[in-house]
Structures are given as C-alpha cells and as structure tokens.
Specification:
Blueprint: E1 2-7, E2 10-12, E3 18-26, E4 28-39, E5 46-51, E6 57-59, E7 67-72, E8 77-82, E9 91-101, E10 108-112, E11 116-120
Length: about 120
C-alpha cells in the first residue's frame, strides 16, 4: 500500500512563513512527479507548484517568487517553503505524487494525501 501524509500547516499572520512536508511511504518502486495543490472552500482545486524527479519546477503565478518546492528522493519527501503569506493563500494544501508500486499490482498513478490546513489571518 502507498500513503502520502502532509504536515506543517497551521495558523500564520500575513507576511509569515510556513514549511509544508509530504512524506510518501509504503510499497513504492519509484516516484516520478510530485506537486502541491490547494483548495479553498467553494473554490476549485488549483496547482500551486510541481517538481519532476530530476528537480525541474513549475509554479503558479501567485506562488512564483514566494514559494519554493523541493524534494528529497532519498526520503521520498517533498517540501513547500511558503514565504510572504497572504490571506489569499488560505486553503487546504494537498500533496500529489505519481507513484509506481513495488509490489503487485504494479500500478502507476496519482496518489493524494489527506491535506493540511493553512490559514493566513491577522
């Protein structure tokens, strides 16, 4: 079985920072791309940032210059450093990963974490 677990969310004031983590565990052969998405109440889920296995990154316009996505392939863990946070960043942040299982069935597909709440408020 494969599991993704996010952590690091919380309440922060505008202008503050948070670092989110996403740890993948279970029967994993490899992880290709990984990404962070967010979803606010009543709004559509949107991509915040993504990173390939080789470390190539893509950011949304709102995240660019403020957020940094990284990954540690030796730990099957991805991070999102968020700086200069604004109330518009308030959302549930979800981890996504393209994973190939190491055990039968050798399935490759998208896995999602349960999400971690980020609230930016004064």
């Amino acid at each position: 079985q494969v599991q993704l677990v996010e952590s690091g969310g919380g309440l922060v004031q505008p202008g503050g920072s948070l670092r989110l983590s996403c740890a993948a565990s279970g029967s994993i052969r490899s992880i290709n791309g990984m990404g962070w998405y967010r979803q606010a109440p009543g709004k559509q889920r949107e991509l915040v940032a993504k990173i390939t296995n080789g470390g190539s990154t893509t950011y949304s316009e709102s995240a660019k210059g403020r957020f940094t996505i990284t990954r540690d392939n030796t730990k099957n863990t991805m991070y999102l450093q968020m700086n200069s946070l604004t109330p518009e960043d308030t959302a549930v942040y979800l981890c996504n990963a393209d994973i190939t299982r190491s055990n039968w069935p050798y399935y490759r597909g998208d896995y999602w974490g349960q999400g971690t709440q980020v609230t930016v408020s004064s």
